[in-house]
Each structure stands twice: as C-alpha cells, then as structure tokens.
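Final report, results section. Input specification for complex C-07:
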Amino acid sequence: MSGCAQQGAAPWRSGRRGLAALPAFLLLAAGLVLLAQAAWIPAKAALAQVLLERAFARTLAEGVAVPPWPWADTVPVARIGFPRLGEHYVVLAGSSGQALAFGPGHVEGTPEAGEPGTAVYAAHRDTQFRSLGRLSIGDLIEVVRRDRISVRFRVTGKRVVRWDASGLDPAAPGRRLVLATCWPLDAVTPGPERLLVEADAVTEP
Amino acid sequence: MLSLPHSPLPHSPLACPAPGLTRNLLLGPLIALLLALVAGIAPARAQDSRAQDGSGTLLLRFEGGAPVEAPRLKADAAITVSGPTARATITQAFRNTTTEWVEGTYLFPLPEDAAVDTMKLVVGDRVIVADIREREAARRVYEAAKAEGKAAALTEQQRPNLFTNAVANIGPGETVLVQIEYQQPVRSSAGTYTLRLPTVAAPRYSPAPPAVTSVVERAPAADPVPDRETIAAPVLDPARHAPINPLTLTIALKAGFALGQVRSATHAIRVEDVSGNERRITLADGATAADRDFELTWTAAPGEAPSVGLFRERVAGAEAVLAVVTPPETASPAAAVPRDVVFVIDNSGSMGGASMRQAKAGLLIGLDRLGANDRFNVIRFDHSFDTLFPDLVAADAHHLARAKSFVAGLQASGGTEMLAPLRAALRDATPEETARLRQVVFLTDGAIGNEAQIFSAIATERGRSRLFMVGIGSAPNGYLMRHAAELGQGSFTQIDTPDQVTERMRALLVKLESPAVTDLTATFSEPGIDVTPARLPDLYRGEPLTLSARMGQARGTLTLTGRIGGQPWQTLLHLDAAQEGTGIGKLWARAKIAEAETARLTGGLSPEAADAAILRLALDHGLTTRLTSLVAVDATPRRPAGMRLASTELPLNLPAGWDFETVFGTQDEAPQLPPPPRQRRAAAPATQMAAAQAVALPQTATDFEIRAWLGALLLALGLLLSRRRLAA
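Structure output:
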C-alpha cells in the first residue's frame, strides 16, 4: 500500500471495508441472477412442453382449443415429431416472442400443415429446434394437428436465408412444411440468418 | 491486477485518491463493459425487429402499413370459342389468410366488348347466383348484406373494360370463389382471328380537375375523371416483390372451319388437336402471373378461310343474327393517293421500358414507308407536348432525318395529358384538300382515366382525318384504343411484344396505303329489323364488316353495297341459311349499349334518353353496364355480431415491361422491404408465384448462453475480488 493509504483515519476503516465489498457483492449477485435467468430459459421450455403436451392431449380429446395454463395467450395447434431423432414438440399458435419461449410457433399468415400452400413453424435454435441440424434429407416429419388429422412430410432440403428474404410463399403450389430457426446453430448472439428445413407432404390429410 | 498506481503528483495531498475509490474507478470500465454487453443484445434485437411489430414478431406486412393483409387471389379462365363468339368463365378465388373477417376489393380488366351476364358466389358448398340490379340498388343490397354479416359479392363496371369485385365477410382462413361469365365476339383481320384476355388493370393517369382559371375552350367544369378513386388499385413494385395473382387458362377453340396455325405471341401455350376444327389450349407453364394481356391468334387452313359468316340464335321470341363479311381485296390497288400523316407518340412515364422502345420502332417503320408525295408531322406528348414541325412537311430526306433523331431522343417520363396533343393532331389546316388522305397514327398504351373527354374530342373534331390507334405494351387500354379508332373511322392495331412491331406496323401501313371500302350500306328485305351498327364504318384492307341484328325471324336477304377504291361492290346474303350460333343475342345487346354510350358522348342522344335505353337493354339481357351491377347475397349471416370486418384493396402486378419508378417515382419510405425472392422476367411468363411479400421469419435465438457466460464471468470476478479483500 502506498503512503496515501496510511493517511486514512480509523473511522474510515469500516466504511472503506463496506465500500470495497460492494463491487464484489454486486458482481456475485449479478452473476447469480444471470446464471439463473440462463438456466430458466431451457428449463421453461422443457417445463412448458410438459404442460403443452397435457393441453394438447386434452385439445385432441375434447376438440376445442385448451390453453396450456390459465393465463396463456396462445394455444397448442399441432404436435410435430422427428421419428428418427425420437423427439416431438407441441406447436403453438403464432410466433411472438412469448409463444416461442415455450415451444415452436406456427407462423401467422401461413396455412395449416398439410393444407395447400406452405406452412411455416419456427422455434428457438437453442431449445426445441436445435434438432434441425440433425435432420437430414429424406427424414420423416410427423405432424398431428389439433383437428386430429395426421400428416407426414419428408425433408427435401435445407437452406440458409436472411429473416426478411425467406422467399417463402404461403400460397405456393403443393403442400409443404418449412421449419425455421436461427443460424448458425451454435452462435451466441442473435443474427439475421435463418436455417430453413423444407419438407413436402407424403400423405394428404 | 488491482494494485494501485503511483500517484502522478505524490506531493499533493489533494491529488491522493482513496484506495477504495480507486478500486471503484477501476471497476467502472468493468461495469461499463457489463452494461455494454447487456445493452449490446438489445440493439441487435431492435435492428432485427425493425419490420416487426411491437411484440417482436414477424411478418406479412404491406407497403404503407395497411392494418390488414389483403386476401390472396388466384384466377382461372375457361374460354370456349364457338365460331364468331367466345364464352368465358373467370373464377377468382379470394383466400383470406388472416385471422380477421375481411372484405376484399379487386380491380380487374375484361375485354372491352365483353357482355358480362353472370356472376356466382361460391361459399363452401353453397352457390349463390347474382341478380342484375340498377347500380345504386345493387350497391345498397351489398352494403346491407355486408353489415348483416352475410357473404356477399358485387360486380360493378367502372369502364367497359374495367370492373371491380367486392366480396364481403370472408371468414378467417376461408376461400371464397367469385365466378364471372361473359360473351365476347371474336375479332378478325386479314384472315387472322384474335381472342384477347386482359389480366391486369394497368395503373392509369387521371388528369387533374381543371384549374379555376381554365382558358380551354368549352372548359369542362367537372373533374375529367370523377371516379379516379375506383379505377386505382395498389400496385406492387416488381423490383421488390415477386408477381402475385396467378392465373390459369384453358381455351376450347371450335373455329367452325379447318384450323391452320394457332399461336400466342404473349404466352407460351400448349395446343392439343381435338379434331380438324377444334383445339384445346392451355398455358405451357401451368400458371402465369396476371401482369399482361393474353392473346391467342389462329388462321384457317389454306383455302378454308370463310369470307362470309352468318349465324343466328333464337332469344326470347325473336332471333338475333350476326353477319361477318370480308370484302374482297382489290387485285391491283389504284394509283397511290397522296397522304398527310401525323404521327403522335406517347412518351409518358407509363411507356417506360419495353413500351417506349416498341413505340419508337413502330414510328420509325411508319416514317420509312412514307412516299415522295406524302407529307407528315410528329407530335410527342407526356404531360406536355411538342410538335416537331410547325406544319406538315414533305417527306424528304432532310425532314425524315430530323424526325428520326427527334424520335430516337425521346425519353419516357411524366404524366399522360392526351387531350391537347390529340386535338393538335386533328387540327386540319387545309380541310379543302380532299384529294389527299389525312391520317393520324397514334401510338400509346392508353393508360388514362379520362376516356370520355378523348372520345368527345374525336367525335367533334375529327373532320376528314382518320385516326389509327396503335396499342403499345403488355396491358393496353383496349377500350380507349378500339373506341377511339371507331370514332375516328380508322383502325386499331395492337403491338404486345417487341418482335411484333415490324409485322403489325407493316400490316397497319398496308391498311393506310390501300383503298378503303367506303359508302357501305346494309339493306334487309324484311321490315322491322333493329340493326347495329346503325351507320356502317369504312373498312380497311382485310377487315371484315361485323353486323348484328334482331328480328322476329331470320329470313329474307341482307344486301351489302359499298365502294372499294372507287369500284362498286355488292353482296347478297340469305338469312335463312344462317348457322346456329351461341351468345349472339347478348352480343347484339352489348353492341347496342355501346352505341347508346357513344351517342350520349357525341350528343346524338340526350344523356337521359341514352341512359334509359342502356338501362332497358341491360335489364332485359341481364348485362353489367355503367348503370347496372351484379350482386349476390348469401341468405344466412355468418360473421358473428361484434366481430369487426376489415376492408382491403387487393394489390395488382405492374404490367410486364413497365418501369415502376418511371410511373410512380422512387419511393423512399420502403427501403427496408425485402428484396424479391425471385428475379422477374419480362419476356417469359413467371410461373412461380410468391406472396405479396414473402414470410418474414421470427427471431429464433435466445440469449441464454450469453447470460450464462456473463453470469459465470461476473461470479468469478466477484469471487476473486472478495478473496483479495480477505487476503488484504
């Protein structure tokens, strides 16, 4: 310590000690909060899927849209499965940030999967749709809609586009399904690029 | 790492900071870094969501930020050609992809001589057939049904070749079909038969209402285009959007004679032989973007071309007869009559791109064909106009060279003020020179809204001039062209594509140089026959005379007389030999209505008398006109009370070959709109349709990794700091 420090009087002692402890405390607290938040995101996505599965099962059974929890502002509309990966997720109506926090969203303005046109489902790359990286051409995708109709699609291709230049036409001929997530899959910051997995219906509803 | 630096001024006690404070100062950058990292996520998000709404979502937005997305439209045209007439069924599918109840309004063109008699609304498995009503009454019925939440459709005529369809109460995710049927005559000239189907309403220039201090003679006080709002629709910039409104097409061609060539200059087609007289035509690419007229032409097999066509149809206790007679061509044309030709070329913004090149090429061909004894002048116009020479000049090398360089230098831009240059072209300095032919060749796309003004000017000021309209571009205003040519006693030539310029201009020039068939009269042996046209036009080389009549029973004879190049000509038709035809009664009524509209414009009939005649014909024959509309209303309400109904106008393509920026100017407000998914081709039909705007994809990354890393880093720093404190 320099000579300056020795000029400090005794009454300063406790105050200085508290002041010096504050940054460490702040850093610790902020670190813990951030870690908790980080852990909450995948935890929420995983927990929500459990509730969504339950709500979707009831939707199928009762034939009416059942919100997954009382205050939910979205409803499950379909269940999408990747049989080769052994994964399935419940898809929500809409692709707002709130909906995507819980599960894949059915992008507004696109038809239902299996109807003529191009249906688009989007989900986070670091939760449900991390699997898109492991889907390969020829893989089957199963979609069970809330009207109990089941449609199977086969992956025909993958491409990377900018979010605002997808070239996707919801009214394009054919019955197609496109799954979208952020690209690159292992990037840390959000970016403008999206990975699209395109699939054609192999069975008509 | 946190060791204190030596004070730069150790002898000054004031300069000695407290160690704790120093540490905090050192922490400052760290906290700033932390803030920057947290904040750094936010701007990245904001940037990505600039075209997204408040909730950070996507998506389908329209230029100008319309609150509701327009329904999607697909159309199918099924046309059956039976000899001299064609019957078309246009099915428009309105698909509402939103979650709102929607009313869609769609502006669409039909052939200018179409007799629209049927409209059906298909909702689910119910088909509602529309009734013909007076325009105001139909509008009231529609508005009432719209308010009650019933599905309803209204077809209104805005111009004889421009209609609007309004469809109310399309449910979320629902598709509603509107089916329109019309009858149309098949046109022919010089042995080539033509069927046209316009597919897109080109944006039109509507001159502003006259200024208060108008010095124009007989200045009209009213707006020249009172309905300017209804004939405009949103237009997508092809540089920013892929084409929309896909159209499929099937034509059953039953020519009534052995067919030769069947071609389309505008679209790639597939032609299947059904029999010698019949073909089935479809688009080679399946679907096309509705951005240009479709044209089908066919000829008879050699030696099979009929010179006389006579058809009859029994309608409501009477018979309608259609006669199509092509006068013979004189073997050796008489000595060429010297001509005075005024060329008028439209260089307004709507002509930008391919149209301007076609017009220039056409005009240059016209200049080249001028003879030594001919005189000429050239006028160009946009919102202003220039006359190249003060008066007609001899077609010598010097003048032609000046004219060619003048034409070559033209640029397309500005508005389309057609009236003044038309009047200038019709102004005849030497009306007594009847030994010379005075011809006006007018090259334009006719993208204007003040047709009535133009027609009035032609009718009152044509004098001895003949007006030859040359339609340029992919979607010209056929109503203006054909009617102006009829009023101007000339002919109408359409040039769709650049490779038609030479062929079609030559055909026109042959007409200009050849003697016309004049002084035509038609005499029926039976009395009490209502015939249209009342006054027969002059005919040019290769053009047939088309005459329709309504009579108690088709019998007796029809005698046609006239003069071809000064030589008398006569032919006699026996009406009882007429073949059965379809839709001839409708075409007769449609021609009568057109005649009454013309008489109204040119003062032949008072507006009240003309309107009364039009209304009676329209209601008797169930035709859509300026005064009558088709309206269909579903019986049961469907939109739940309290749910709002959003109204939207469906966007249109810009006609192929048009230049968006020349027409609409550059738009600064939409630089962030997505680029088109696919390159648009002007020469070949685009088969891939895209949405009005491609789907924008939502943000699909979370920041949990960043948060985790940052959290761990801060935790580590905090731990380090407190350990140092303990150690100290």
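Chain A touches chain B through 76 residues (CB under 8 Å). Chain A has two domains: 3-40, 43-201. This concludes the modelling results for the funded period.
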